[in-house]
């Protein structure tokens, strides 16, 4: 399996099953999507996304226990970008997969592992810092290991979002001044290797930027 990124901003995600697993997936997608959870009960009703990347993002709950035909009806009416099948009923989960497949909609089935058909996607463990993200998966062999590794790499990503913002701004400047591509690459590499830029990113962004500009200015013109 090969990871791809999908922007759910402004999209709807339809989750069947409001147990711990459905709630965890709902929480994840509600960072940027409008999430509709269909379930007789929802174990995470107080949930509010910590980071809302779209005004409509959040979770709505519909109290219902649809049978397989009813599941199809929800998928038809809601027209989601992704269906999450996270009930404790294999028949209901299978109906959600079928309904999604018929509409060409992405589907995440929580009660299975191993190879999948096109359009059937897996949710990895994710670490995010600003616009930077890392995802861990184990081919479904050991999801608890994905969680464990996610916790371990959380600290590695600290400051990465601020660094991405800084480099994004500097790159625009480099492009405006028509800095040759080779020199631009060398400057970016030198900034990334500079401990004092990293150190100041979290505390004094303006200072980090000045340091980075100095590092870039010191990069030799001819790097061939
Ligand atoms: C295939 C996949 C499909 C999918 O859901 O997309 C899937 C399937 C299954 N998970 C099961 C169990 C557990 N899953 C977790 C945790 C997570 N599971 C996640 C993803 C995935 N789980 C996909 C593969 C990802 C990969 O390749 O690694 C994470 C990463 C993302 C997320 O869900 O948000 C999230 C960590 C999030 C985080 O913290 O960062 C824990 C740990 C815990 O709960 O503490 C346990 C209990 C321990 C154990 O059993 O290992 C079972 C057995 C159920 C049973 O026995 O009944 C199945 C079904 C089966 O294996 O058949
Ligand atoms: N992918 C993952 O990370 C994991 C997957 N699982 C699997 O996912 C499934 C769900 O796990 P949990 O949330 O722990 O189970 P759970 O049993 O606590 O929750 C299932 C929820 O589905 C609801 N439900 C039942 N019939 C429904 C229907 N017709 N329509 C809508 N909702 C319905 C139940 O009321 C309950 O709220 C389990 O069957 C298990 O196989 C379990 C652990 C982790």
Automatic annotation (TrEMBL):
An individual GO BP term: siroheme biosynthetic process
InterPro entries to which the protein is assigned, alphabetical: Met8-like, NAD(P)-bd_dom_sf, Sirohaem_synthase_N
Keyword NAD among record annotations: yes
Recorded coiled-coil stretches: none
Region (Disordered): 46-66
Catalytic activity field: precorrin-2 + NAD(+) = sirohydrochlorin + NADH + 2 H(+)
Gene3D superfamilies reported for this sequence: NAD(P)-binding Rossmann-like Domain (3.40.50.720), Siroheme synthase, domain 2 (3.30.160.110)
Family annotation (SUPFAM superfamilies): NAD(P)-binding Rossmann-fold domains, Siroheme synthase middle domains-like
Keywords: NAD, Oxidoreductase, Porphyrin biosynthesis
MF terms in GO: ferrochelatase activity; precorrin-2 dehydrogenase activity
Record EC number: 1.3.1.76
One Pfam family matching this protein: NAD_binding_7
Protein name (database record): precorrin-2 dehydrogenase
């Amino acid at each position: 399996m090969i990871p791809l990124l999908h922007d759910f901003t402004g999209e709807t995600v339809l989750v069947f099953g409001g147990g711990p697993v459905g709630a965890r997936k709902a929480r994840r997608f509600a960072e940027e999507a409008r999430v509709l959870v269909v379930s007789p009960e929802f174990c995470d009703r107080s949930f509010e996304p910590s980071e809302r990347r779209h005004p409509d993002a959040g979770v709505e709950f519909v109290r219902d226990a649809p049978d397989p035909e009813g599941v199809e009806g929800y998928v038809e009416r809601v027209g989601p970008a992704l269906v999450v099948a996270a009930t404790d009923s294999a028949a209901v989960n299978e109906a959600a997969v079928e309904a999604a497949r018929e509409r060409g909609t992405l589907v995440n089935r929580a009660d299975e592992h191993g190879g999948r058909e096109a359009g059937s996607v897996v949710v990895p463990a994710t670490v995010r810092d600003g616009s930077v993200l890392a995802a861990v998966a184990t081919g479904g062999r050991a999801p608890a290991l994905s969680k464990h590794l996610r916790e371990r790499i959380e600290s590695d990503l600290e400051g990465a979002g601020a660094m991405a913002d800084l480099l994004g701004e500097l790159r625009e400047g480099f492009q405006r001044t028509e800095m040759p591509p080779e020199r631009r690459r060398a400057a970016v590499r030198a900034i990334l290797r500079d401990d004092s830029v990293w150190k100041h990113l979290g505390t004094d962004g303006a200072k980090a930027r000045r340091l980075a500009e100095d590092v870039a200015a010191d990069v030799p013109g001819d790097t061939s």
